[in-house]
Amino acid sequence: MSLNTDTLKLVNYIDYGSDIFAGLVKVKKITIGYPGNGTTDISFSSAADHTAQNEDVGAVIPANAIVLGVAVRCYQAVSDTSGTFDHMLIKVGNASDGDQFCTSTDLKVLNSVIGPASAGSPFEAISKNDQNVWVQGFPTPTAAETWSTMNGGKWELWIVYVDLNAIKE
């Protein structure tokens, strides 16, 4: 595969050959767990109700990055002490309670997955600052489903982006 060097010249970058993009596309993986699990990068906070919880994953998208896609996969099925946990809604955005990257989807079952919120690319405007990512979990809809009864449930959050900072002149 050859690289269109005319495009590169338009943006004032040198032609590094066909592997210029190899170091630019990055995948960040963050693990998220049920309250109190202690084995994931972040965990949902414990609460004795079924209120949606928003967790700030941090500024994981670097400045000047173009987000290509975001996905979440359940790698440990949701379980609880009552055995009646029906739904675990997950969404991902760039602000608390946001869904710019992934809209609210039930991710209770092992290997269930959600992807991008829209077919648009990039999903959010490129920023000169690092961007935070927020994940919301929402056990719903029955009274038996609460954060305090959960004893299982883990998810992988994948963020795929082009790191324009990796381009060297």
What's the short story on this structure?
4% of the residues lie in helices and 43% in strands.
Write up this protein:
The protein is mainly beta and 169 residues long. The protein has one domain (24-166): Jelly Rolls (Sandwich). It has one helix and nine strands. A hairpin with an 8-residue loop joins strand 5 (88-93) and strand 6 (102-106). The longest helix has 6 residues, at 5-10.
Which labels suit this protein?
169 residues, mainly beta, Jelly Rolls, five-stranded mixed β-sheet, four-stranded antiparallel β-sheet, 1 helix, 9 strands, elongated
Biggest beta sheet summary: 5 strands, mixed
Low-confidence spans: pLDDT under 50, at least 5 residues? 1-20
Radius of gyration: 19 Å
Q: Could you estimate the helical fraction of the residues in percent?
A: under 10%
Oligomeric nature of the chains: single chain
CA-based shape: elongated
- Tally of extended strands? 9
Q: What proportion of the residues form beta strands (DSSP E)?
A: 35-45%
Write the CATH fold name: Jelly Rolls
By secondary-structure content and strand pairing, the structural class works out as mainly beta
Query: What's the order of the H and E elements?
Result: HEEEEEEEEE
The CATH first-level class comes to Mainly Beta
Write down the overall mean pLDDT: 80
**How many domain regions?**
1
Kindly, what is the distance between the CA atoms of the first and last residues, rounded to a whole number of angstroms? 22 Å
Our count of helices gives 1
* Strand order in the sheet with the most strands: 2-1-9-4-7
